[in-house]
Design goal:
The chain is of the alpha+beta class and 237 residues long. Helices cover 36% and strands 30% of the residues. It has 6 helices and 13 strands. A hairpin with a 2-residue loop joins strand 8 and strand 9 (140-141). The longest helix is centred in the first third of the chain and has 21 residues, at 26-46. It is elongated, with a radius of gyration of 25 Å. Residues 230-237 have low confidence and may be disordered.
């Protein structure tokens, strides 16, 4: 029989939180890229000296049809921003996903040498539930972001440095999330080690995007465990 420990943890943000899930619909993005290529091809044909006035009119009509079709599907060729958002659950509530919490634990374990051996154990023996964790402010669920944050992203490519704009949904503190942590006591893994990682992340880490810029910082507001677990945790300390 595998021994298991559980705790319900509530975290509260102390700085602004940025959405990190891509908002791009792959089908829409493909349609947009195909439209760009087709319009570019048509514009080249339009600018040829050999193109007659009648042919030019047909080409212009075709370009207009493509643009109209994109508009009907809510696609704009002018918007090149990379927008990241907070996931929504079925009720439309802004949420955090379970694997983003697991990612926080793994990143914290990796950044501290003495905890690196725990990283793989987290994948095998730690579960975060529910899979979609709705966020609250003042006890109320949140359905819309407070603002959008746009910032430049710099990257080095073989052609040289490039700068693009990234835009993210933003929520001001205090945002609360509550979730259940379930740990299988195997290979030295236990609930206390997970709680220790949360304490380290509380001081040195953060949730979601631009953590190095001070975004996504949080505090542990509450840890609720069973009486049996409380005795074990007290003994471990």
């Amino acid at each position: 029989m595998i021994k298991k420990e559980e705790a319900t943890i509530t975290l509260a943000t102390t700085t602004d939180l940025l959405g990190s899930s891509p908002s791009t619909d792959p089908a829409k993005e493909l349609k947009k890229q195909e439209a760009k290529k087709e319009i570019k091809r048509l514009e080249k044909a339009l600018n040829r000296r050999s193109t007659t006035a009648e042919e030019a009119e047909i080409i212009e009509q075709r370009i207009a049809q493509i643009l109209e079709d994109l508009e009907e599907h809510g696609i704009s060729l002018d918007d090149e921003r990379q927008i990241t958002i907070f996931p929504r659950d079925e009720q439309g509530r802004l949420s955090i996903l379970h694997y983003q919490i697991l990612g926080l634990l793994k990143e914290t374990a990796y950044n501290f040498k003495r905890e690196r051996n725990i990283k793989n154990l987290i994948s095998r023996y730690v579960k975060i539930e529910p899979r979609i964790i709705p966020m609250k402010r003042d006890g109320e669920y949140i359905y819309q972001p407070d603002d959008l944050l746009t910032r430049p992203l710099r990257a080095m490519t073989p052609q040289g440095p490039i700068v693009s704009l990234a835009t993210s949904e933003l929520l001001h503190p205090e945002i609360e999330i509550s979730f259940n942590v379930r740990v299988a006591n195997l290979e030295g893994m236990n609930l206390q080690k997970i709680l220790d990682l949360f304490e380290v992340a509380e001081e040195w880490g953060g949730l979601l995007q631009w953590r190095t810029g001070g975004y996504g910082r949080f505090e542990i507001k509450e840890v609720a465990t069973s009486k049996k677990n409380k005795k074990k945790l007290a003994a471990a300390k």
